[in-house]
């Protein structure tokens, strides 16, 4: 059996420096103080690297990033946050060579717990060999590692290979060459990262991390001001005044006219990018349109400038609620059931197609610089705050034409056919890909539960999350 052993950092990944990934663990698994402390030690870490003390600098990074952090938090970050940033740094040419072999082993200087999920599920590696984090009896990381020596790693690699020696070794000193033979045997593709979590948009390199820290206090004040201003100003003025405060709303297409007294309302079927999709849509239409919701926090409902209709996920009960709201006027629904950050659309629930033939698809998208506005692991009540903490948040709203009658259930089409058709329309408009993944699939990946419900927290748990995010 032909086999390959490849280094991760600097070979399969373009960047040989793992510092930014430890910064991600520090921020997402612990909080701002640990994030700042690790950044403050970067000159020391860099100096140790320059004088040839790589092992010491690596152990220092590991200790500061994870000491005292629960194992479950580290696993959560490794599952929900790191794969996105690893994938963005993947060297595709080297991965083609790596994936052309039958037996694939990855060697990393990073603790295995951080990379194992990514290299096995996304890069199709058979085994990963790295250092082992030490945990105490309470499952808290001690910050120390074992199995770090080159002899130990070499022995573990040899034990994994039946013939004792790999066919090819890929490292920084011996870059592989992609031959026709390699390419002909290339049958796999990296598994794309569709679901990911965490608050940071960009990989926190030292310069980016410093910028984030300097911006944080300004961003908090700016977010509070923006939210307060949005609750005071008339709704019709928000698209115009947003420019005064470094925000922007881009509108494409022609929205429908408001419903007359004799007609039922229009159902706006939107892609779901952030919690603010219905609010932005309402501001563009210059009227407060109710939105159906599933699992937003009570705080978000209180702060919402538009009416919200909380659904139960019991089909007949939810159908009746939606019908009642449509009889009063327009309504907004996001049939994906949860947000997705990447250029993919989750499978649309077909319920909306059963209830009306007045369907207007709306393609929603957004761009932010520092912080994501949705999270599965943290407290959802902070979502709007993080969105407005961005220096220049941009929203794009594209109105498509109302579905013709022949494309609705009134013409005999099944609700699933209608839902799939709307999904394809919106995906084509945004340049996204359609998937069959659902909300349950998302939470299986990100939250590690069975996907039957969103992660819920007691009030104490929520407050701990807030303190950990901004302080600990």
UniProtKB/TrEMBL annotation:
GO terms for cellular component: membrane. GO terms for molecular function: glycerol-3-phosphate 2-O-acyltransferase activity; phosphatase activity. InterPro entries: HAD_RAM2/GPAT1-8, Plipid/glycerol_acylTrfase. SMART domains: PlsC. It comes from the Eukaryota. Its main location: membrane. Keywords: Acyltransferase, Membrane, Transferase, Transmembrane, Transmembrane helix. Residues 266-367 form the Phospholipid/glycerol acyltransferase domain. It is found in: Membrane. The chain crosses the membrane at residues 20-45, 210-236. Pfam families: Acyltransferase (PF01553), HAD_RAM2_N (PF23270). It is a multi-pass membrane protein. One of its GO terms (biological process) is cutin biosynthetic process. Belongs to the GPAT/DAPAT family. This is Phospholipid/glycerol acyltransferase domain-containing protein. It comes from Phaseolus vulgaris.
